[in-house]
């Protein structure tokens, strides 16, 4: 009975909200479905929300901003950007 109410509530919630809110839940839902760890999924969602509320941008927007080249980059920052780009290439191959 309770499970039925939860499903009905989630169904109506998905109908009454915009697409952007549903997409914000997609990552943690996928994490929960693949790993089965609800704590990890909750931490992922919570940290994304905190980052968005603190900076006003999503985590992916912050990452894009960090990776854009700037004239005043330090050597450490250049090295970190280089490593991130190499890691991204490796992940895309797999």
Q: Can you give a write-up of this model?
A:
By secondary structure, this protein is an all-alpha fold. It contains five helices and no strands. The protein has helices at 2-16, 19-35, 38-55, 59-67, 75-93. α2 runs antiparallel to α3. The longest helix is centred in the last third of the chain and has 19 residues, at 75-93. The radius of gyration is 18 Å and the shape is elongated. The model has no long low-confidence stretch (mean pLDDT 75).
Task: Name the features.
single chain; 94 residues; mainly alpha
SSE blueprint and pairings:
Layout: H1 2-16, H2 19-35, H3 38-55, H4 59-67, H5 75-93
Helix pairs in contact: 2-3
In DSSP terms (H or I, runs of 4 or more residues), the helix count works out at 5
What would you call the shape?
elongated
Strand-residue fraction?
under 5%
Summed over residues and divided by their number, the pLDDT gives a mean of 75
- What is the element string, with H for helices and E for strands? HHHHH
Low-confidence stretches: none
Tell me the count of domains: 2
**What is Rg?**
18 Å
Tell how many strands the DSSP assignment holds.
0
Measured distance between first and last alpha carbons = 43 Å
Estimated helix fraction: over 70%
**Major sheet size, sense and barrel closure:** none
**Helix-strand category:** mainly alpha
Quickly describe the structure.
The chain has 94 residues and is an all-alpha fold. It contains five helices and no strands.
